[in-house]
Amino acid sequence: MRLTNYSDYALRSLIYLAVKPEPHTLANISDIANSYDISKSHLTKVIHQLGQLGYIESVRGKNGGIRLARAPKEINLGVLIKQIEPDFDLVECFAVPVSKDKGSQSKDLPVTFIEEKTDKPIGCVITPVCQLKSVFSEALRAFITVLERYTLADIINNEDELKDLLFR
Q1: What are the percentages of helix, strand and coil residues in the chain, rounded to 5?
Q2: Which residues contact 35 (CB under 8 A, 6 or more apart)?
Q3: Matching PANTHER family, A to Z (predicted)?
Q4: pLDDT (average), residues 4-8
Q5: 3-state secondary structure of 124
């Protein structure tokens, strides 16, 4: 399982905001991007979504910026990842075909929906009988279950070391 850079940047941004020397003061996207040497434009999209999801609050204006909207112990890593990862299609057959007549099925993880255009099977030829899909599904659920056991507070318990690296 590999998370996208988007999820990585989201987690790093939350870590940065959680360990700021003065937690209630505002930070800005440039500070975060510079601290991690990552793209400001890509980070802007991440921060926007984190704001929409209620993880951070933003203040507009000349002296504006961003800060955590929740306490670190209230930010569950598994919940966050399920909200921001675009899909969990470990293999091609995880994409769910959608026909115009049947609608779509939902599950607790992000799903990529693909529209059926022909009678030809989508993806791998053995998909209808493949049992490997259930193994991958079980592994993915285990991955998410582990993430759900941790909060942002758990991963910033070395706060002083993080501050030394991020706020030189």
Answers
A1: 45, 10, 40
A2: 16, 166, 167
A3: HTH-TYPE TRANSCRIPTIONAL REPRESSOR NSRR (PTHR33221:SF4), WINGED HELIX-TURN-HELIX TRANSCRIPTIONAL REGULATOR, RRF2 FAMILY (PTHR33221)
A4: 94
A5: coil
Helix (H, G, I), strand (E, B) or coil at 63: coil
pLDDT, tens only, 51-95: 999 999 999 988 899 999 999 999 999 999 999 987 777 666 666
Element (H, E) at 65: strand 65-68
Residue 79 CB-density burial (10 A; 0-12 exposed, 13-18 middle, 19+ buried)? middle
C-alpha to C-alpha distance for 140 and 127, rounded to whole angstroms: 18
Name the amino acid, one letter, at 7: S
Taking all residues of the chain, what is their mean pLDDT, rounded to a whole number?
A: 85
- Domains, the chain, in order of start with CATH, read 5-75+151-166 (1.10.10.10), 83-147 (no CATH)
Residue 143: strand, helix, or coil? helix
Residue 92, C-beta contacts closer than 8 angstroms, at least 6 positions apart: 123, 124
pTM beyond 0.70: the answer is yes
